[in-house]
């Protein structure tokens, strides 16, 4: 079965040179973008009910741009003036760069990991006497508490925002050759929106082991997987697959 249409369960990229746009041009396929999940902030009252007092913490662990936005939103709502002495531990350069939206970068103590949460742990270990707060979603990767508990640091996770299933009812009668997923929540959204979903000839592309697990546990056939040594990105995996099936 040749591939002509793809639905990516994420927002459309804002950068002009996105690999997805190159894929559209090179392989002559139609790609639509639609977030299957979205984020909703919880209230300051909800944060307080989790026994969180922002004045108790000397360091913030930020694992995404959402965590940055919602930490400062809650701080503002609770009228907490974030002290200049606050330390920020960012999972990646992208998160650290985004932090500049709220703080003057050169005047703050900001520590940056490489990509994964595990890669951030040596920096946290250096400052293990700090009191760490991790503002995050209600869906926290299992590795996070494991890493922090193994370090023996004083830390607390609090839900500042929630991952919510988006309404996809308008896609009920729309067919795509490939559906692309990046998280177990995306798989959950598909099945919640379409409980009678039959995969048939639809190809499923997934990114990451937890997404593979969620797909297979829900009876879906995974046809395209990333990252692999040969295809470290989803666009590379898609391109390889499309080249193979469309040349037949």
Q: Helices and strands: which structural class? A: alpha/beta
Give the fraction of residues assigned to helices: 25-40%
Rounded to an integer in angstroms, the radius of gyration calculated over CA atoms is 20 Å
* N- to C-terminal distance: 9 Å
Largest sheet: 6 strands, mixed
Low-pLDDT residue spans: none
Discrete helix count: 9
Write the CATH architecture name of the domain at 40-163: 3-Layer(aba) Sandwich
Q: What is the total tally of β strands? A: 11
Give the overall silhouette.
elongated
Strand order of the largest sheet: 3-8-7-4-5-6
Topology, pairings included?
Elements: E1 5-8, H1 19-27, E2 30-33, E3 37-41, H2 44-49, E4 59-62, H3 65-77, E5 87-90, H4 93-99, E6 109-112, H5 121-126, E7 131-137, H6 143-151, E8 154-165, E9 178-181, H7 184-193, E10 203-207, H8 209-217, E11 222-226, H9 234-246
Parallel strand pairs: 1-2, 1-9, 4-5, 4-7, 5-6, 7-8, 9-10, 10-11
Antiparallel strand pairs: 3-8
Helix pairs in contact: 1-9, 7-8
Structure description:
The strands form two sheets. The protein has a six-stranded mixed sheet with strand order 3-8-7-4-5-6. A five-stranded parallel sheet has the order 2-1-9-10-11, with helices on both faces. The chain contains nine helices and eleven strands. Helix 1 runs parallel beside helix 9. Strand 9, helix 7 (184-193) and strand 10 (203-207) form a beta-alpha-beta unit. It starts with a strand and ends with a helix. The chain is elongated, with a radius of gyration of 20 Å. With 248 residues, it is of the alpha/beta class. It has a domain at 40-163: Rossmann fold (3-Layer(aba) Sandwich).
